[in-house]
C-alpha cells in the first residue's frame, strides 16, 4: 500500500511539474538530487563538474518531462538522462576509451572479513579513494557496471565502444583497484 502511495505522490509531482509548478520541481529535485549527484561524481570524479552536470540533467529532465511515459520508474528515467549528460561531459574532455593502458596485470587480493568497525571504515575510504584515482575510462566503465548496474552491451552502447572493450576496461579497472589497495595496505603495515 505504501509503495502505491509513493508511486501516486511521484505521479502527482510529475503531473504538477508538467504544468510548470516550481514547487513540484523543487520537490522532485529534493527527492533525487543526492542519488543523481553521486552518479555524476562517480563518473566524473570532480564535485564541481558533477554538480554542473547534475543541474543540466535536471533542466533537461524538466524540459523533456512530456516524453516520460511512465514505462519505467521516474528515478530510472532521470538516471539515464544524468548518465548521458555525464558521458557528454567526458566526451568534451576528449577522453579516448580505446587508448587506455594495456599493461595492468596484478594478482587478486582477498581481504579479511574479520575486521573491526574502524578497519572496515578505513577499507571503505581506501576503496573510494582508489576509485577516484582510476583513469577516467576505467572509472566510467566501473561506475556504469558496478554502481549503476549496466551490462556490457548497454555500456558499449552508451560509450560508443565495443562490448569486448567494456569487458576489458572493467577487468583492468578491478585489477587497478586491487593494485591501489595493495599499495595502501603495504604503506600502512
Topology diagram in text:
Layout: H1 2-18, H2 22-44, H3 47-63, H4 74-92, H5 117-133, H6 136-147, H7 152-159, H8 163-188
Helix pairs in contact: 1-2, 2-3, 2-4, 2-6, 3-4, 5-8, 6-8, 7-8
Q: Given the structure, what is the number of helices? A: 8
Radius of gyration: 19 Å
Question: What's the overall average pLDDT, rounded?
Answer: 78
Low-confidence stretches: 1-6, 95-114
What's the shape?
A: globular
Query: What do we call the CATH homologous superfamily of the largest domain?
Result: Winged helix-like DNA-binding domain superfamily/Winged helix DNA-binding domain
Short description:
With about 190 residues, the chain is mainly alpha-helical. Helices cover about 75% and strands about 0% of the residues.
Describe the structure.
The chain is mainly α. It has two domains: 2-92, RNA polymerase sigma factor, region 2, helix turn helix motif (Rna Polymerase Sigma Factor, Chain: A, Orthogonal Bundle); 97-188, Winged helix-like DNA-binding domain superfamily/Winged helix DNA-binding domain (Arc Repressor Mutant, subunit A), CATH 1.10.10.10. It is built from eight helices and no strands. The chain has helices at 2-18, 22-44, 47-63, 74-92, 117-133, 136-147, 152-159, 163-188. Helix 1 packs across helix 2 and helix 7 crosses helix 8 (163-188). The protein is globular, with a radius of gyration of 19 Å. The model is unreliable at 1-6 and 95-114 (pLDDT under 50).
